[in-house]
Amino acid sequence: MTSLLFPGSFDPFTRGHKDIARRAARICDKLYVAVMNNSKKDYTFTLDERVMMAKMILEEYPNIEVLGSDGLLVDIYKNLGCNAVVRGIRSESDFRYEAEMSMANRMLHPEYDVVLLPCRDDLSLISSSIVKEVGRYGGDISAMVPTQIVELVNDRLRKGRN
Ligand code: PNS
Question: In the chain, fewer beta carbons within 10 Å around the N or the C end?
Fold first, then answer.
């Protein structure tokens, strides 16, 4: 059985993330989506909120399981016995970031590997940061995040402005 691990901050989950999860789930038997923390980032949503949103969005896929962790990526990777990590890339700068992250993870765990999926053209400009910027100024985010979380994300972003 092949299992892949798709980790990320998902603050919040975007249509781009959903497309990567959907495609990754087609090339393995089991896809784990791990909602994690990046020590360089300040989050708008708590880890539990991000896990809850990812579960709402991905419940239609029977071979996807969502989990949350405040630990190291390689630890989940080892514990779950995954074959590789999956990450979506939108640009050359994403590629550089992924290459650095995979080198660091491979130093921690030599069996670590990554599959990079280029994102869909029409989703290449969407990021969680853009969603937050547009939403905070009252713009329409419905083309950027999955329908299930539009209201929830809008509520948080607009409150953050007061
Ligand atoms: O969506 P992001 O912010 O690009 O995801 C980055 C994430 C959360 C996958 C990365 O920061 C991570 O793996 N965090 C867990 C802690 C860890 O293992 N850090 C070492 C990575 S070199």
Answer: C
Pairing of strands 3-8, 30-35: parallel
pLDDT tens sequence across 93-120: 999 999 999 999 999 999 999 999 999 9
**Backbone φ and ψ of 67, nearest 5°:** -140, 160
**Domains of the chain, CATH where assigned:** 3-121 (3.40.50.620)
Q: Does residue 3 come out as left (phi exceeding 0), alpha (psi in the -120 to 50 range) or beta?
A: beta
User: CA-CA distance, 46 to 50, in Å (whole number)?
Assistant: 6
The active-site residue, picked from 9, 15, 17, 55, is 17
Mean pLDDT value across the chain: 97
| Angle, alpha carbons 5-116-110 (nearest 5°) | 60
Is the CB of 46 within 6 Å of ligand 1? Answer: no
Give 7 Cα–ligand 1 centroid separation in angstroms: 7
Closest ligand 1 atom to 101 CA: 22
> Is 56 within 8 Å of 148 (Cβ atoms)?
yes
| pLDDT in the model for residue 161 | 62
